[in-house]
Amino acid sequence: MRQKHKISTLPEARTQQVDSSIFYEVQQHYHREFRTLQHENYEDWLHNYVSEDIHYWMPVLEQRLRKDKRRQPTPDDAAIFNEDYLELKQRIDRLNTGAVWMEDPPSRIRYFMTNLEVYTTDKQDELETFCNVMVIRNRRQVESSQHSIGREDLLKREGSGFRVLKRKLLIDARVTQDKNLYFFS
What we know:
Elements: H1 20-38, H2 42-49, E1 50-59, E2 79-83, H3 85-95, E3 108-120, E4 126-139, E5 143-158, E6 161-171
Parallel strand pairs: 1-6
Antiparallel strand pairs: 1-2, 3-4, 4-5, 5-6
């Protein structure tokens, strides 16, 4: 059964913002993580940035009227991604087979991160982070796509770095014009 790590989403539920040295450490961690992904070092990313207890989740979001008070999606609902460590590894292994024809030749991807917030949690070695990510992907001569994503992470300090315990990706577009979402963010 998938281990569930709760990330708060309401400001009053969060604990305290971290000091500037930890904020900078997390920011630099994310910059290295994005560079690792941009260079397609997926095994390195999985091994050095991802916890074996990860829950990597991109729920399907509905555009609802304000009066529609149905609950928000949970990991038990349909999702674009709802993966653990093994499933991420299988996706990476599949990329290396050459069988993912949409990524041969590989896309050129750039990541841009803004609005980073970092908070303490009730566990000394864990941090909550919130940021916005822009993923720009170019493939072949004329194919280009952009994805704006809100990202909510639960990080665990391990040694001199961090690993992702939980990553929730909230893609802004209800319907994407891209042919696939075969990238990591």
